[in-house]
Design goal:
globular; alpha+beta; 12 strands; Protein Transport Mog1p, Chain A; four-stranded antiparallel sheet
Length: about 220
């Protein structure tokens, strides 16, 4: 399941309105790099993010990645891929979604919907979730991990593939951000980390970053 599809379905699951496909607007991301971090300005918010973890050195990140950006009614979606990869074909992607939400739902609500939707994309026998630390209430959540050893049969385009995902959740008084990274590779055994498309220490380190080094605030 691609993050773009997940975004739309999560909003439907949470009862939020979405625009028809014809009204979706793709554009250059309102994304800057400053002080070694990325800053996304969208939906009346600024989301501060760590750089992609596959990049090394001090060169500007934005010249060495591919990006897509989608703005809809009340939501914005950014995806970042390694240079040469794309929305259709990727081995890893780094994404963020900002949604307007006037404290109508807790972050726990968003996490629950995300879990249901990701589980539906995967072979049920090869699906698992894990939490990277304790929650501190419904609006201060630990990062979520998802293991999919193989996609569901109906996703024939991804036959023979599986993925790992980590996601973190941030909220302001008027918005919610979901920040995530996914790694895709050949089908694997969820119970045997040696077969995963990414090392467990990489997953843990990235989850820690997406919790500790992300902030969401209303734009000035």
């Amino acid at each position: 399941m691609t993050p773009l599809r997940t975004v739309c379905l999560v909003l439907v699951a949470l009862g939020a309105a979405t625009m028809p496909a014809a009204a979706q607007i793709r554009s250059t991301p309102p994304l800057l790099e400053e002080s070694g971090k990325l800053a996304l300005d969208a939906m009346g918010h600024q989301l501060s993010l760590p750089r992609p973890d596959w990049l090394t050195g001090d060169e500007a990140a934005l010249a060495r990645v591919e990006t897509t950006f989608l703005a809809e009614d009340g939501q914005a979606l950014l995806e970042i891929y390694p240079k040469g990869e794309s929305e259709a074909l990727w081995t890893t992607l780094y994404g963020a979604r900002i949604s307007r939400d006037e404290n109508e739902r807790t972050l726990a609500d968003y996490r629950a919907a995300l879990m249901v939707l990701h589980a539906n994309s995967c072979n049920p026998a090869l699906t698992g979730f894990f939490q990277l630390g304790p929650d501190k209430g419904d609006n201060d959540l630990a990062p979520l991990g998802f293991v999919c050893g193989a996609y569901a049969d109906r996703y024939s385009t991804f036959a023979g593939l599986g993925e790992i995902m980590v996601a973190s959740f941030q909220r302001s008084d008027t918005g919610v951000a979901i920040i995530y990274q996914e790694w895709r590779g050949k089908s694997f055994d969820p119970g045997d980390p040696k077969t995963w498309p990414v090392a467990t220490e990489v997953v843990q380190a990235r989850a820690n970053q997406l919790k500790a080094e992300v902030s969401l605030r209303k734009a000035d």
